[in-house]
Design a protein that fits this description.
Layout (H helix, E strand, L loop, with lengths): L2 H14 L6 H15 L12 E2 L2 E2 L15 H4 L6 E4 L2 E4 L2 E4 L6 E4 L4 E4 L4 E5 L6 E5 L8 E3 L2 E6 L7 E6 L4 E6 L13 E6 L2 E6 L2 E6 L5 E5 L5 E6 L2 E7 L5 E6 L6 E3 L6 E3 L5 E4 L7 E4 L5 E3 L7 E7 L4 E7 L8 E7 L6 E4 L9 E3 L7
Antiparallel strand pairs: 1-2, 3-4, 3-30, 4-5, 6-7, 7-8, 8-9, 10-11, 11-12, 12-13, 14-15, 15-16, 16-17, 18-19, 19-20, 20-21, 22-23, 23-24, 24-25, 26-27, 27-28, 28-29
Length: 367
Amino acid sequence: MTDLLKDMMNERADGIGAPNLDVPAMVREGDQRATRRRNGVLGLVAAAAVVAGIAVPTLSLDRDTAREVEPASLFAGQQPSWAVGSTVHVGGEQIDVGRPVSELFVTTDGVVFTDERGTVYASDGTGTPEEIGAADRSFGSLVGDGSRAGWIEHEGGSAPVFVIYDQSTGERQEADYDTAGQGATEYHPSLFAIDGDDAYLRDARGMIRWDLASGRQTLLGRPQGAEVADVKSGVIAYTLPADDAGALVFAGRDFTGGTRLSLPPQDLTLNPSGTRLLGAGPGPSVGVVDTSTGELWPVTASGYAHITPVAWVDDDTYAAVGSRPPTGPDQEDLLSCDVGDPSCTVLAADFTEASESVVFSLGFPRR
């Protein structure tokens, strides 16, 4: 290269200057593209409470400030989660998903929800939610645990399909309804729960545990009339028919010899370790019970005329909706309560309006 050419190139290089690169914006765009390539992302409600002695402040719920948020920080831990219309409230933030939410599950990576037709969508809190399935709601509600959500799909003329979607990987696993070579039985399709790497379902064979890591399916039995309410850490909360046409509640690791529990058979949910069962159904025995001993703790909150549990925060703390006298939808607070302690902490005061219908994660009680 001649000296003249080198001098000319150096002069032009000096005149160009440093490039103007918005690196954070490039990273965000790359993350969003990667998310779209793996078919979006999917919430277990867990209302925030007091952790390590530090109280969580009351949530700010300005209904006019729904905005896009950074998914990495938003879904990192257990936080309050519910939907009103098309707005999902999680971790003090609001996400507008563009259509009314019928069922909701907040995963460790985003939200999965259905509309009134059963169409299943996934969102990571940014952009437009992606359609990922079509749930047949006649076979039950959305279920989930961790990064996974599940439902049943059914098209006319074909067998029902059990679907598990892992938001963290974008993987979709399917299992066809096994007829076991039989005709009509009482064992109609149900997807009861996801517990870690296991999904619990029912087909014509009976109650099945599906290992999502290996694909292996294990028959747990054919208990007549049994319905599974929840599964956590291998503990199964289930109901069996009673002589008076009602139902009895049990908890155990199988369907033989479980502990009978004094709770109404509606709206039952286990804490993460499976050691306590929370009941939100009607009746005087609503409360929390020990799944091994049957010990009962009442569900109460000082200063509230009525309290409705909605989810576990951890093994010892649950979230609830409390109605303050005079009872009415404008007088409802979202609370954090420790088992056996009526002095609950207010997480969000007056968190709903009179005209609003609230959908809590995983189909917990709604108004």
